[in-house]
Amino acid sequence: MIERARKTAHFRLVIVNGKAYVEKYKQSIQTRDKFTLWGILQLLRLYPGRLPDLELMFDCNDRPVVRARDFRGPNSGPPPLFRYCSDGSSLDIVFPDWSFWGWAETNIRPWSNVLKDIEEGNKRTKWKERVPYAYWRGNPNVSPIRKGLMTCNVSDKNDWNTRLYVQDWGQESKQNFKQSNLGDQCSHRYKIYIEGWAWSVSEKYILACDSMTLIVRPRYYDFFSRGMVPMQHYWPIRDNSKCTSLKFAVDWGNAHTEKAEAIGEAASRFIREDLKMGYVYDYMFHLLNEYARLLRFKPSIPAGALELCSETMACSAKGTWRNFMEESMVKSPSDSIPCSLPPPYDPPALKNFTDTKVKLTRQVEAWENEYWKKIN
User: Exposed e or buried b for every residue in 307-331, given b needs 16+ CB within 10 A?
Assistant: First the structure.
C-alpha cells in the first residue's frame, strides 16, 4: 500500500532503531524537502528512542492528491501519503510545513524566533491605535482567488476598507527583504488570510498579529486550523463576494472595537499557546506513533537510502540555510515526556463542533445581508 504513494512522493522516510534514512525520488520546490527532513531529525533529538520503527512517503507539493472518491470499495484502501495540507474530499495526512524550521528562500526565520518578532511587533502599536483597515500583502499571481482579492483594493471609485499590497519576492531578495519583516506587519486592526495555490504558510503569521483575522472561506486545511472557531478566533469572509464582505467586516469591527480586539487577541493567544514549537513536535510525535501502529510489516532500510544526521545536514548547508538550521536545532533531549494525546471526538461531539462553526458563519453572513440591505 505504501508503494502506491510513491507516484507523487518526493521522498521515502524510514526510521529504524531511532535513526532516520531517506530515499529521494525528485527535487521539491525550493528546499521544502530538506527542511521537512530537518524537522523530523529535530524530533528524534528531542525525544530520542521514543519513536517506533516506521516507513512513510512524503509529497512536498501544495495540493492534496489522494481523492476519497477513488477509494470507496471495501478493499480499496488509500495509499498513506504525508503532505502539508488536505481538504474535505481528500485523504492526505497533514504534517507541519517546512517553514516551522525556516523558509530560507524568503528569509523567514524558524517559527520560534518569528513568533518572538511578531510578539514584539504587537507591543509597538496597541490595537485601537492601529490603522482601521484590512491589510494584506502577498503574491496575487498564484491563484484566481487572490487576483480577485486585488479588485477589492482602494481606488478612486471604491473603498472597500482594504489596503492590499503586491509582494514581489524577486525584488525583495535584491533588497535583502527589508520590507518583509513579519514583526513590522502588525500595524492594522484587521489582516486578511486568503489561500494561494492551496493553503498558505502565511496563516500562522497573520493569526499571531493580535489583529482580527479576516479569513476568506478556505478550501484547504493544515494540521491546526480546524481547531479554530468563527467569531472566536477569526471573522469569516465570503469567497464569492469578497469586497462587500470585507467592507462589512471592517465596519462591524470599527463599530464593535472591544469585540473585534478580543477576537484578534484570542487568535494570537491560540497561536502562542497551542502552536508553540513544543506542541508542534508533540503533534508530530503522536501522529507518527499512531501511524506506525497501523503498519503491518517491519520497516527496513531500503538499499541505497542515506542515513540522515543533523550535524551533517547543517554543516553541508551554507548561508541562510545553515543559519536557520543552527537556529532551529534541538540542543538537548526533552526533560519531560510528550503531552498526552486526548481521546478522539465521538461522532456526536464532532458533529456538534462542525455544526457550531457552520452556524456561526451563517450568523455573520446574515448580519452582512442585513447591513447591505439597509444601505441599498
Answer: ebebeebbeebeebbebbbeebbbe
Query: pLDDT per residue over 168-191, tens digit each?
Result: 777 877 777 766 788 888 999 999
Orientation of helix 277-293 relative to helix 111-124, angle to 10°: 140
User: Percentage of residues in the chain with pLDDT exceeding 90?
Assistant: 90
Sequence length of the chain is 376
d(Cα 244, Cα 275) in Å, to the nearest integer? 32
At which residue does the C-alpha cell 469578497 appear?
242
**Full-model pTM:** 0.95
